[in-house]
Design goal:
The structure is a homodimer.
Chain A lengths: L16 H18 L6 H8 L3 H7 L3 H12 L11 H17 L3 H10 L7 H24 L9 H18 L5 H6 L1 H17 L7
Chain lengths: ~210, ~210
C-alpha cells in the first residue's frame, strides 16, 4: 500500500504525464475488476502507487476521473486516417482486436455494461460513443470520395461487420489461444478487411 | 415480498413448467442487474414471486440455478436448421439482435463479462460456448455441402461478421431507437445476411 506523497500535493508543481498515465490505467483496471460499485479514489490511488492527494490534485471527483479514463480507454477512431479505406479499416479492426483480446477486455466489456447507467458519467460516455460513430462513418465516406468503394455501399453494415467482427473474433478466441492472436492482431485484421471489401466491391448478380 | 409457499415444497408434487420459466427469467434478470455478487436464491425467489422452498426443490445451489438459466438465456444455435444457409444465418442474426437490443441486453453483456470467472459456473459456460461454436460452424458446413457457398469460404470470418455484426448493430443503436429495431429484427437480419453472402459468393478479382 502506497503512503501519501507529500511532494505531489505541493501547489504549482508541474504535473508528471507519466503519473497521469499510471492513474488512468489504474482507474481502468479498478473499474474493470469491480465496476462502479468498486470504484473508489483510494483503491485507484493504491493501484497506481500514488497518494490520494495526487489523485485529488488532478481529479476532484471519481466521476471526473472515470470519464477521463474512459476517453483514454476507448478505441481512438478519430485519430485513424492512413490515407486509404483499407488502411483505416485495418487500423480500426486492429484496435478492436487489441482491446477485446488483451488484458483490457474486462474493462471494455464492463464499459458496455455499466458506463451508460452511471450518473455523471453516462452523458459523457454517450457523447463519446456518438463521436466515435461519426468518426467511423467519416472513414467510409472518405473512401467513397476517393473512389475506393461505390457510393451505394451500406456504411452501417460495413462498420457493424468490421467492428463487430473484430470484437466477436477476440471474444470467441479461447483464453489459451489469445496470446497467439494478440501477438499478431494486424494479420487477422487484414483478412477481415479483405473479406468485407470483397462484399462491397465485387459485382452484384453472380454467386449461388 | 413473496411468502413461503408450503404446497410447492410437498414431495412428489409435479413441477409446474410455468414456474420453472418464471424462476429462470428472474434468475437472468437478477444476474443482469447485480451480477454474481448480487445473485442470491432469496432475491431470485422474490423476483419470481415464489417461495424459497420452490427454488430449492428445483435447484440445490445458486451455481446450479445460474448454469441452467445461462443455458436458457443464450442464443439457441443448436436448434437452428431451416434447410438453407441464408435461412439459418437470418435466424442466428435475428436471435443476436433480439438478445442485445431487447431487455435481455444487460444480462447478455454481463454473461460475457462474468460467467467465465464464477467458480462452479465457468466450466459449464465454457462448455456451452464451445458447443455453440461447433453448432454455428455446422450451419456453414451444411451450406457448403448443399453448394450454397464455395468450399473455400472462411467459416470463421463469415460467422464472426454475422454474429458480431448483429451484436454491434444492436449495441450501437441509440436507446431511443431500439424499439424500432426490436419491432422488426428480421428485416435488418436479412440485409446483413445479403451483405455477407455477397462477400462469399461474388467472384474474386473485380472491384476497387
Amino acid at each position: 500500500m502506497a503512503t501519501m506523497s507529500a511532494s505531489a500535493a505541493v501547489p504549482g508543481r508541474p504535473r508528471d504525464p507519466q503519473v497521469d498515465r499510471r492513474i488512468i490505467q489504474a482507474a481502468l483496471d479498478v473499474f474493470g475488476d469491480g465496476g462502479w460499485a468498486g470504484f473508489a479514489m483510494e483503491t485507484v490511488a493504491r493501484r497506481a502507487g500514488v497518494g490520494k492527494a495526487s489523485l485529488y490534485l488532478r481529479w476532484s471527483t471519481k466521476e471526473a476521473l472515470l470519464t477521463d479514463a474512459l476517453a483514454a480507454g476507448l478505441v481512438r477512431v478519430s485519430d485513424v486516417d492512413t490515407g486509404t479505406l483499407r488502411g483505416d479499416m485495418v487500423e480500426l479492426a486492429t484496435q478492436m482486436l487489441e482491446l477485446y483480446a488483451g488484458p483490457s477486455s474486462r474493462t471494455a466489456l464492463r464499459l458496455n455494461l455499466e458506463a451508460g447507467t452511471i450518473p455523471g458519467v453516462a452523458e459523457h460516455y454517450e457523447a463519446m460513443r456518438a463521436a466515435q460513430v461519426v468518426a467511423a462513418r467519416a472513414i467510409v465516406h472518405r473512401g467513397i470520395e476517393r473512389g475506393e468503394v461505390p457510393a451505394t455501399v451500406s456504411v452501417t453494415l460495413l462498420l457493424d461487420t468490421l467492428v463487430g467482427g473484430a470484437m466477436m473474433h477476440a471474444l470467441s478466441t479461447p483464453p489459451g489461444k489469445r496470446a497467439i492472436l494478440t501477438a499478431d492482431t494486424a494479420s487477422h485484421a487484414r483478412r477481415l478487411v479483405e473479406f468485407l471489401m470483397h462484399a462491397v466491391t465485387a459485382p452484384v448478380g453472380s454467386g449461388a
